Amino acid sequence: MKTITEFMTADHTACDDEFAHAEEAALANNWSKAETAFNKFRDDMAHHFKMEEEVLFPALKSAGGPAGPVHVMLMEHAQIKELLKQMAEAVAQKNAKSYGGLSETLLIVLQQHNHKEENILYAIADEILAQERDALLERMQAV
Asked: Do 61 and 74 contact (CB within 8 A), yes or no?
């Protein structure tokens, strides 16, 4: 089975692809496609956060992992969720200008967030949770 880093990085990539499809459709004023793509992206992000917040982060903390980086990731999740809420409003209003501005902000936030997770937090999780990795990944996929 994959490492936590490989599994979660692949999920980041899948979310990034959905994000790009939604942005492309919104900026082209194809609102039917934009709504479908954005909803898929938002649902995928919600699932990703659920895997982390309900399974990975608690396992990491209970195994003695660093609380600080987990806390930072949770704060960033809240920021991303707020941006997603605002983007949903822009889609509902069919406002390409608003969506584009929010999308640019989200892109920067996600790039920084994903970099920290992929290069720091997941590597720590792979090391600390190595013994239970396979079971942990199964629990994450089941959420």
From this structure: no
